[in-house]
Every structure is written in C-alpha cells, then in structure tokens.
Amino acid sequence: MNGPLVVLVGPMGVGKSTVGLLLAERLGVGFRDTDEDIVAEQGRTVADIFVEDGESAFRALERQAVRTAVAGHTGVLALGGGAVLDAGTRELLAGHHVVYLSMDVEEAARRTGLNAARPLLAVNPRKQWRELMEARRHLYEEVARTVVATDDRTPEEVTQEVLNAL
Ligand code: S3P
C-alpha cells in the first residue's frame, strides 16, 4: 500500500516527534507531523484553533490533514494525541503500519513535569491522565499494528524497537 512507511500515535508527551525524527533519519525518509501541517495551513496555533473554533472543528481539520498526509507522504508520519478520537480519522489509518507509543500514567505525569513535590498539582493531573488514557487506550490499540512501551526507555531505544517491528 502507498502512503507513510509508519504512522506514530500515542498520547501527548510520549515522544512521537522525537522518535519520529530519529526514525526518519535512520530510514533516510522525511518526517511529517499533522499538528504542524494544520498550523501551517491555518496560520494559527493548535491552542488558538481549540479556543476559537472548538475541539470538534479541530478534529475535522485534523481528519483532513491526516487524509492529505496518508495520501501524499511516504515517510514517517506523527499524529496528534487525540487524532484517534475521530472515527473518520481511524478509518483513514486502516491498512497502514500504525505504531502506538505507550506510556503509563506515572510516566506521563513525570514527563509533563508534575510530581509529588507539589501534592495538589500532582493529584489532579494524575487523575486527568488516568481518565484520558481510559478513554483513549482502546482506540490507540484498535488502530495499531505494533505497540511499543516507552517507559524507562530512551528515544534511541524506542526508535530501534520500532525499526525492529517494520
Ligand atoms: C491533543 C494533542 C496534541 C494536539 C492537540 C490535542 C490531544 O498533539 O493535537 O493539542 O487531544 O491529546 P501532541 O500529541 O502532538 O501533543
């Protein structure tokens, strides 16, 4: 099937861009990120689109960006963390080698800079991460052909594991 060699999905902060760039370098292909495509096309930040137009408008723009990238890009493609929430976007991924970069809630809290040093800050973000992952985990698993756990691994190790799976 034509299209990207590999599509990376997973929650924000898991390292899709870092690993995506390393992977593209190792494979000698280009790297593309649908968030960046949307920002370039819209001339506004993702945060501004969310505030001004709402999440469902962003998801529709994201679906269009995924459609374009899946049709025209033959390298490594990274999607935004919430792209899998949209059924139309999930359909576009069928038949492609989708890799789910996963991390557990503790790792997510740590990587997003929230830790037990500030208990009030730490409690709610952990709960939010847990709820977010409960809502999304099965969707990441549904679209993925390969799952690579990133906890306790360097981006280079994660990249190698993705390469082994291709
Ligand atoms: C989102 C993740 C972001 C971006 C937007 C929404 C999400 O992408 O698409 O802020 O819903 O998880 P990254 O995963 O690249 O940060």
Structure description:
This protein has 8 helices and 5 strands; from the N terminus they run E-H-E-H-H-H-E-H-E-H-H-E-H. Helix 1 (16-27) packs across helix 8. By secondary structure, it is α/β, with parallel strands linked by helices. 58% of the residues lie in helices and 11% in strands. 33% of the residues are buried. The protein has helices spanning 16-27, 34-42, 46-53, 55-72, 87-92, 105-111, 119-143, 155-165, and strands at 6-9, 31-33, 76-78, 98-102, 146-149. The radius of gyration is 16 Å and the shape is globular. The chain has a 5-stranded parallel sheet, sandwiched between helices. It has a single domain (6-160), classed as P-loop containing nucleotide triphosphate hydrolases (Rossmann fold). Shikimate-3-phosphate (S3P) is lined by residues 12, 16, 35, 46, 80-82.
Strand runs, count: 5
Unreliable parts: none
CATH topology: Rossmann fold
Task: Please identify, by name, the CATH architecture.
Answer: 3-Layer(aba) Sandwich
Sheet bearing the most strands, described?
5 strands, parallel
Shape: globular
Number of helices: 8
Residues in helix, %: 55-70%
Query: What is the CATH level 1 assignment?
Result: Alpha Beta
**Gyration radius from CA atoms, angstroms:** 16 Å
Mean pLDDT: 91
In short:
With 166 residues, the chain is an alpha/beta fold. Helices cover 58% and strands 11% of the residues. The protein starts with 5 loop residues before the first strand and ends with a helix.
Provide keyphrases for this structure.
Rossmann fold, shikimate kinase activity, single chain, ATP-binding, Shikimate kinase, binds shikimate-3-phosphate, Shikimate/glucono_kinase, alpha/beta, five-stranded parallel beta sheet, 166 residues, cytoplasm
